[in-house]
Specification:
Length: 277
């Protein structure tokens, strides 16, 4: 059992974490300042703890606050953290940007969900509808021990598995690798490509294709094409016509140097955009 201070406990993310921590034997102090968040905790029958009281004897402090507020909140609690306390952040942006407390005597742990995979074995309506994860659908997670003794990793991973439950695989990465995964891989590249796909659907509709037909067609093709690209189908491959279309369209749709978004300077700028907006 650990003593956990959950800051932002009544928010959207904090509420999910609160619900999962209630299933554990940890002693959790819920910290919330927003009226809506306080009301949300009240509906769960949970009291709000004063910040200083929550931090006083906490083994771990979870910052369930937006990326652009993590630096501000972390600075506000820096001098109230006991030596040896684990500060858990739910995204790599602020740590990568250098927004964490400059204290060598505390542990800093970063964790983030992979979210439920497209290819899964979920059978219940609740799990099938849990696209984000952390409620009913199983998901993988990534964890990074940014700073602190190696023996603290086990506690950080345990708490991570509990707040993102149900969890399948837990991948250990560095903060730098986590920043490559998000924002670059998941948002800069994948999110942008999917946004373009949606805009392409809208363009097809604009040119006369029935909206429902365009949606059904692209979602079905996404399913099989993702299975092909990520080798989920034995001997699955694109048709010769599809290969030709991809070969000709790729230089039209993407700059030849698009991989520069993975360069350290590009990652840092993306992270600064997220944390400073």
């Amino acid at each position: 059992m650990a003593r956990i201070a959950l800051i932002g406990a009544g928010g959207k993310m904090g509420g999910r974490i609160t619900d999962n921590l209630l299933k554990t034997d940890h002693r959790v102090a819920h910290v919330e300042v927003g009226e809506a968040g306080i009301a949300a905790l009240g509906k769960r029958g949970l009291a709000v703890h004063p910040l200083e009281d929550a931090l006083r004897d906490a083994d771990a402090v979870i910052l369930a606050v937006p990326d652009n507020r993590i630096g501000q909140v972390a600075a506000g609690i820096e001098h109230s953290l006991r030596s040896g306390t684990m500060l858990i952040v739910l995204d790599a942006a602020a740590p990568y940007a250098g927004d964490m407390p400059k204290r060598s005597d505390i542990t800093m742990f970063v964790t983030h969900p992979c979210h439920p995979p497209i290819f899964n074995d979920e059978t219940t309506p609740e799990a099938k509808g849990d696209f984000f994860g952390g409620i009913a659908a199983k998901q993988h997670i990534v964890c990074a021990l940014m700073q602190g003794p190696e023996e603290h990793y086990a506690l950080g991973e345990q708490i991570s598995r509990e707040i993102w439950a149900p969890v399948m695989r837990s991948h250990r990465v560095t903060v730098e690798q986590m920043a490559i995964l998000e924002p670059v891989l998941s948002e800069t590249v994948t999110g942008t490509c999917l946004t373009i796909i949606r805009e392409a659907v809208d363009e097809a509709v604009k040119r006369g294709v029935p909206e429902e037909a365009a949606r059904d067609f692209v979602l079905g093709h996404l399913n099989v094409e993702i299975a092909i690209v990520f080798q989920q189908l034995p001997n699955g491959t694109f048709s010769d016509g599809a290969k030709l279309a991809i070969e000709k369209a790729k230089p039209e749709l993407f700059r030849p140097d698009w991989r520069r978004v993975f360069e350290p300077e590009a990652i840092r700028q993306s992270v600064l955009d997220i944390t400073r907006h």
